Structures are given as structure tokens and as C-alpha cells.
Amino acid sequence: SNNNTAQSTTLQLTQPDALQLSLTADFILCGDGNDWNIQSNVIGGTPPYTYFWEDGNGTNPDLTDVPPGTYTVTVQDSRGCSSSDDITLVPPQPLTNTFIATNPTCFNGNDGAIDITPTGGTPPYTFFWDNGANTQNISGLASGQYSVEIFDSKGCSIIRDFELVDPQELIIDLGPDKTLCLGQTYTIDASINDSLATYLWQADNGFTDTNAQVTLSQSGTYTLFVTTALGCVSTDTIEIIALENEITAEFVVSTDIFVNESFVIVDVSNPIPDTTQWILPEQAQQIEITTNYAEILFEQAGEYQITLITTIGDCETFFTKTISVREAAFDREQENQNGLQQYLMYPNPTKGNFTIELTFDKQTPIDIKLFSIANNSLLYQHQDQQQTEYNIPFNLEGILPSGIYFILLETPEKSYVRKIIVE
Length: 423
Hints:
mainly beta; five-stranded mixed beta sheet
């Protein structure tokens, strides 16, 4: 009213920056479980801020340990201004892998390999093998079980197991050791079903050959190395024993054999066999059977076959002789008229000195042999001729060791075998 005026201080009115909200998220491990964290980033507006997460997720600015999905939050400042944002959590592709497992080329080989290609997850990847390796791929492996744990950069991991297996073993079998008789050969064909395989024979006697099939005739230890087209090697060894002496089977037996009277058959095979076996008729009564001689008798007259089988190593041969057993009553009377009239050998047993007395119906040449049963060797021989009576002393005391010996008396018509014991 008095035209008085007053001027206030100058007031400057400003408005805050616009309220802005953004969301960021990250995960640990594989991102497919409660391993996500969401962070709210607010600028502008007028602090403090209040947060309202939908779906009951609370009022904290950030969310922790939540699963994948869509999340929405509204933020309000102190003036009531608000802003909303949402974020969708999508896990990465699952961590997995493809692989190529290569088995060893040869049985008990060590050239196997495992090549791994990881996918998914969050690269880069790290590898921890149960054999201590930490490379993506491993090689130089034998057959067996292998395991690897693969980690991505977030710590997500998977474990994979592998098995490498050997191929079927290449087995070379040359068979058992072999003994060859004099003049024999032994052929071995070690071919395998591989046209590109190579063969190498070696022996301690200097023998070498590069064929799959060989014919062996000499003593030695032979080793074969077979290499397949893939480079796999298999080997085997065989021992060959080639005898330098011919194997024989031979025995002596009397030609005059009578019913119910025992007689002996004596092995005189030379060289001495490893084993002997007598094959006797069923009708033979066995009084004494040894590897060197047999003493038997027959109760009925007839012709019988006796066989001796001998072996040296794997060599075997046999000798068979047919004997004639006669009735004693008539044949002894005829014997006293023709041929040998008397055959005495005394004393028996003896210390080594003994006498043989022989009487024939006519002048008859004789051949007397003394055999050792220990080694089939001829120890003593006496030959004479053109006499009807013989009185032959044997002075062998101190020369013959104790044991059983055999006297073989041979005439042009017959032969006689008798046993003598030296005490």
C-alpha cells in the first residue's frame, strides 16, 4: 500500500536425472541349477531406492543362487519415481564331448590313443586324466580302463570313461618238440591268414629261412618270428633232435620150444632203446617180464607171434617173430635122434666161470654168444666147427659183474637161448 517492495533470494529449481534401471547376470559351474546371480544397476532418480522383485523373489537389490528363468524387478526412488526391467537367464549348452578311441594295433601293444573334442559349457577347457596326463588327447596307450574329468572355465565338469581293448592275440604254435629217426625230416607250415606277413626262422645250428614252410632234418632249437602287415610280431620255438643212429627192435629166442616148458626171449636191440614193450599172445603164461627179457611158457602146442616194440625219443619201431611150440613127448625123442643130443651149462648160478657141454648127432658148427642184459652188448663169442661134442670153458670170474646174462647158441638149423646168473 505504501508501494513498498521486497525481493527474495533467487531460487533455482532442478530435477534429478531420470531414474534408470538395468540388470546384469552371471553364473558359476554349469548354469543349469541354482548357480545364477542377478545384479541391479540403478542411476538417476533420488536415492534411496526400494526394490520389488516379482514372483516373491524379495526386495534385495540383487538375487543370488537362483535357477535359469525370467526375472522382473521394479525400483522406486524416494520421490516415488519408478522403473522396471527384466532379464532372462539362459544356461549354456550342456558340457559334453565326442571322442575317437583307437585300440592298440597289436596284442599287448602300446600305441592306443584317445582323442577328445569337448562341446558346450563355457570354453576354454582343462583336462585331468587318471594316468596323470592333462592334455586334451592322450596316446601311447596299452589296453585298459581310462578316465578323464573335463572342466570348462566356469568350473562345470564331466567325467568320461573309456576302455581300450587288445586285438586277438596272434599265436604261433610250432607244436611239441620233435625227435627224428635216422633219415627222417619234419615239415612245419606256419602260414597265417595274412598275405603280407613276413617270416624269419633262426636256429642255434646256423639255420635261417624266410619262408612260412620249412623242412627240418638237423638237431637244433628253431625259433620263428612272424610279423603281420600291421607290424605285430609273434614267436614260438621248437627243439628238433635228429638221431644219428638207426633205431632197431630185435630179440633172440630158442627155436626148440616145448609145451609147459618155460623159455626166454631177450631184447638185443642196438642202439639201446629208451623204452621196450613186449606184445605177447593171450595164451602165454608170464613167468617174469622185464624191459630186457621175458620168460614165458605155453600150455598148448601151436604157432604164436611175439612182438617187441622199441622207442628212442619219438621214434618207434617193432620186430615180430613167429615161434612154434611143440609137444614134448614125441619131439624130444626125435630131437635125441637128430641134431642136438645134449646141452649142459654148469654151474648156474656161477661166479663167472662156467662150462657148456654140447653133443650132436653129427659134426655141427656152433656160434655161442654171451649177451649183457644191462646194455644189450655182446660180451663174449665162441665159434667152433666140425665136431660132434664140445666142452667149452668160460673163465670170466672177476670180469662179469653180478647180474643176469644170456647165452645164445646158434647152429645152422636152430638157435637156443638160456639164462645164466652171475653172483
